[in-house]
Design goal:
This protein is an alpha+beta fold. The chain is 35% helix and 20% strand. The strands form eight sheets. Strands 8, 9, 10, 11, 12, 13 and 14 form a seven-stranded mixed beta sheet that branches. Strands 25-26-27-24-28 form a five-stranded mixed beta sheet, covered by helices on one side. The chain has a four-stranded parallel beta sheet with strand order 2-1-22-23, covered by helices on one side. It binds ligand ANZ and zinc ion. GO terms for molecular function: leucine-tRNA ligase activity.
Length: 846
């Protein structure tokens, strides 16, 4: 028997598929269309195992759909703008464009070696003008439709490097390079009106039944629609302050009012009071993210004002507080320390009353002495007319009362804010707007698109290279011709990934996409990617799609009707056993490829100087550069071939769970590929005879696998293929066996496509197995397992019958009476009575 030469077969079939453009999707096909997409990669350098797993899953589905008669769109491209390219420019002096394009070339070659059924003719990279120029046109279409506006908003400012920092460049509140405390600064920035679609984006989730519930819930929480009450407190200086609450039920538990540092009340106080001004300055320090606001110490400044409780429950002190955001609600709140954790921390610090108004089980006492707020459900207590009501009833009651009496009104609010898209960075899509002293903001005329990034930029000093480029930003105003300035900000890279799936479906030169062609492919029927994108990317893409519908460019409601979030690839971690190591903690991790395995499996690391340091095994964790527990797919493909890697990625764990990479696992996969090959190699050309047991097994497998692949339960499909392979191996030569081997090749083709092609050709089949039709199921052969039935004559066992389980009584009786042994035992007598116990026994009384 020969051995399957994976490397040779991989290269050969990849070339054949390429030459024949096997996986190029035809826009004009008469077949039903199916769009299978995996989240496109960021070209960070090399393909990692997470990519391999992700793309293998999508590939199996795409190949299966092709075989079942669909015209499949399965494209690939590059999410090619972003910070890492600029970091590389700053650290290594390489141009972001060169770095990115080099990485793309490397990663493309690596993806090709895995034999994915991708339509490379549709490849795109978001960093090229033929992509981002169209994005600029979409931005302008949104601008014209009033979905884009500009307003002042806070950014992270590094006072030493004098530059704006991305959130990921702020580490523990300090600039990543300077180490200086980051400040909040206001800049004029562009926003997309995602909040206009907040209700639609929540309601649309209901129809996404092929999305994981957990992702739908995350989206819903992110949008955070809540019903609340707005009302005004009258202040002791005869002014007033409007607050917003989602817990009007707790109104009798209020013990203070707090306003944001940039609230007008705070600002006017600061104008007269230098302590207040200093406090406000202090609030500006610290990060701008929600998480930072949540965790930072709660600080307040007593304004000396008091607010009159709207239901006559006394006067409340008014504070300026760092945990109140100007951008949310009204920028002012009333604090209920017993039932809100931030308020609790604040009240504890400033010794304000903490009064229970929602019973915590049996506990109804107004005095509250727990060490955290109680935020659960319960019955209202210590709340006058609200006592005894549930939280929900009390909310409704207070809102109704406020509306009746005219001091407040119920409102719907959203946690979701408009999407700030301006980034003070080079490596992104230039925002196509020109600022003119006379005309204000002027969109770049369409015929001047794309606004192309200048190539000659420097990264030797901090800041935005576009802004300090000597000529790029200086242009004539398109409207009046006067000297004007380009916007030097670029778009958030989430904009690039919000419509790439549309450009894959249709990519004319002269416009972002053709409406009819794009609509013929969309929505993406199955989208596969990491759960880390469950919120922002998916929400932005859903918004972008709706915005396109709003401007009449695309009539699609939801971009992705099916979503699957796959688990991670994990590996054991290894650490140098150096007890009193005082360097950075990360320095002790060792990559699995650098280990030496000694006697009894003891691990060590050999230094360049020839010393041997013992190594400890650590936990199994997500493969990551920081823990150095990555396994580079490339040498694995070199050693075992693409099919073994693909098979392993599918076989071990359910796809939504983590998959632990192991040497044993990949070796097992390789052995299976070889087993398949031996089966083909050993199969004689001519054989006769039926093997109904094998036929049945085969058809059960065909039926089962189809369901498994549709459900993306690849590990179950793999298990069934193992079983079928064993059954064929054990069977004697027969026409059934020959047919089973041919059919098996079609069944494994989506998973191990190179071996399947090689074997298909070796068996003399015409065409490519990739183009072959998925096997049909013979329903008659799906009957459950067989049963053995005892046949007695006058109570004595005379024969056994093997019959299909559930066979009819008369068929069983007829089979028993036809038995030679029974005929002999009857000695010519006519049976008087035949008793059939289905699936068990036939007793013949003569
Ligand atoms: C009184 C109260 C009592 C509140 C209680 C909560 C619990 P969600 O549900 O996330 O929408 N809030 C309102 N505006 C704010 C702002 N600008 N900055 C910081 N906090 C603000 O949050 C709404 C709740 O967050 C509101 O309800 C308000 O505090 C606070 F037991 O009012 B609550
Ligand atoms: Zn002008």
């Amino acid at each position: 028997a020969t051995r399957f030469n994976a490397l040779k077969a991989d290269a050969h079939w990849q070339q054949v598929w390429d030459e024949r453009r096997t996986y190029a999707a035809d826009d004009h096909s008469a077949k039903p269309k199916s769009y299978v997409l995996e989240m496109f990669p960021y070209p960070s350098g090399k393909i990692h195992m997470g990519h391999v797993r992700n793309y293998t899953m999508g590939d199996v589905l795409a190949r299966y759909r092709r075989m079942t008669g669909y015209e499949v769109l399965h494209p690939m491209g590059w999410d090619a703008f972003g910070m890492p390219a600029e970091n590389a420019a700053m650290e290594k002096g390489v141009h972001p464009g060169n770095w990115t394009r080099q990485n793309i070339a490397t990663m493309k070659a690596q993806l090709k070696r895995l034999g994915f059924a991708l339509d490379w003719t549709r490849e795109l990279a978001t960093c090229e003008p033929d992509y981002y120029g169209h994005e600029q046109a979409l931005f302008l279409a949104f601008y014209e439709a009033g979905l884009v506006y500009r307003k002042e908003s806070a950014v992270n400012w590094d006072p030493v490097d004098m530059t704006v920092l991305a959130n990921e460049q702020v580490i523990d509140g300090r600039g990543w390079r300077s180490g200086a405390l980051v400040e909040k600064r206001k800049l004029s920035q562009w926003f997309l009106k995602i909040t206009q679609f907040a209700d639609e984006l929540i309601e649309g989730l209901g129809a996404l039944e092929h999305w994981p519930d957990k992702v739908r819930l995350m989206q819903e929480n992110w949008i955070g629609r809540s019903q609340g009450l707005r009302f005004r407190f009258l202040l002791s200086d005869s002014g007033s302050v409007e607050v917003f609450t989602t817990r009007p039920d707790t109104i009798y538990g209020a013990s203070f009012v707090a306003v944001a540092a940039d609230h007008p009340i705070a600002q006017s106080l600061a104008a007269q009071n230098s302590n207040a001004a200093a406090f406000i300055e202090r609030c500006k320090q610290g990060g701008t993210t929600a998480a930072e606001l949540e965790t930072q110490e709660k600080l307040g400044f007593d304004t000396g004002l008091t607010a009159a409780h709207p239901l006559g429950a006394g006067e409340l002190p008014v504070y300026i507080a760092n945990f109140v955001l100007m951008e949310y609600g009204t920028g002012a709140v009333f604090g209920v320390p017993a039932h809100d954790q931030r308020d609790f921390e604040f009240a504890t610090k400033y010794k304000l009353p903490i009064r229970r108004v929602v019973a915590d089980g049996e506990r109804t006492d107004p005095a509250f002495d727990d060490d955290a707020a109680y935020t659960g459900p319960g019955v209202l207590v210590n709340s006058r007319e609200l006592d005894g009501m549930s939280v929900e009833d009390a909310k409704r009651s207070v809102i109704a009362r406020a509306e009746e009496a005219g001091w407040g009104e119920g409102t719907t609010v959203y946690r979701l804010r408009d999407w700030g898209v301006s980034r003070q960075r080079y490596w992104g899509t230039p925002i196509p707007v020109i600022h003119c002293a006379a005309c204000g903001e002027v969109p770049v005329p369409r015929e001047q698109l794309p606004v192309v990034l200048p190539e000659d930029v420097s990264f030797d000093v901090p800041g935005n290279p576009l802004d300090r480029h000597p000529t790029w930003k200086h242009v004539a105003c398109p409207r009046c011709g006067a000297e004007a300035l380009r916007d030097t900000d670029t778009l958030d890279t989430f904009a690039d990934s919000s419509w790439y799936f549309i450009r894959f479906a249709s990519a004319p030169d002269d416009k972002p996409f053709d409406k009819a062609v794009a609509e013929s492919w969309l929505p993406v029927g199955q989208y596969i990617g990491g759960v880390e994108h469950a919120i922002l990317h998916l929400l932005y893409a859903r918004f972008w799609t709706r915005a396109l519908r709003h401007v009449g460019m695309l009539d699609v409601a939801e971009p992705f009707t099916g979503l699957f979030t796959q688990g991670m690839v994990t590996h054991e971690t290894y650490r140098l056993d150096i007890p009193d190591h005082d360097g950075p903690p990360g320095a002790l991790w060792v990559n699995p490829a650098d280990l030496t395995v000694g006697e009894g499996g003891a691990l060590s690391f050999e230094t360049a100087e020839g010393a041997s340091i013992p190594v400890l095994r650590g936990r199994v964790e997500k493969m990551s550069k920081s823990k150095k527990n990555t396994v580079d797919p490339e040498p694995i493909v070199d050693q075992y071939g693409a099919d073994a890697v693909r098979w392993f990625m599918l076989s071990d764990s359910p796809p939504e769970r983590d998959l632990e990479w192991s040497e044993n696992g990949i070796e097992g996969a390789w052995r299976f590929v070889q087993r398949l090959w031996r089966l083909v190699d050993a199969e004689p050309d001519v054989a006769a005879g039926q093997d109904t047991v094998l036929d049945r097994k085969l058809h059960q497998t065909i039926a089962g696998i189809a369901g498994d692949i549709e459900a993306l339960s690849f590990n179950k499909a793999v298990a069934k293929l193992y079983e079928l392979t064993s059954a064929i191996e054990k069977s004697a030569p027969s026409t059934s066996r020959a047919n089973a081997v041919d059919t098996l090749l079609r069944l494994v083709a989506p998973m191990v496509p190179h071996l399947a092609e090689e074997a298909w050709a070796a068996r003399g089949k015409s065409g490519l197995v990739a183009d072959a039709a998925w096997p049909e199921v013979d329903a008659a052969l799906l009957v459950e397992d067989e049963v053995t039935i005892a046949v007695q004559v006058n109570g004595k066992l005379r024969d056994t019958l093997v019959m299909a389980k559930g066979a009819a009584k008369d068929a069983t009786e007829a089979a028993a009476l036809a038995s030679d042994k029974v005929v002999r035992a009857l000695e010519g007598k006519t049976p008087r009575k035949v008793i059939v116990v289905p699936d068990r026994l036939v007793n013949i009384v003569a």
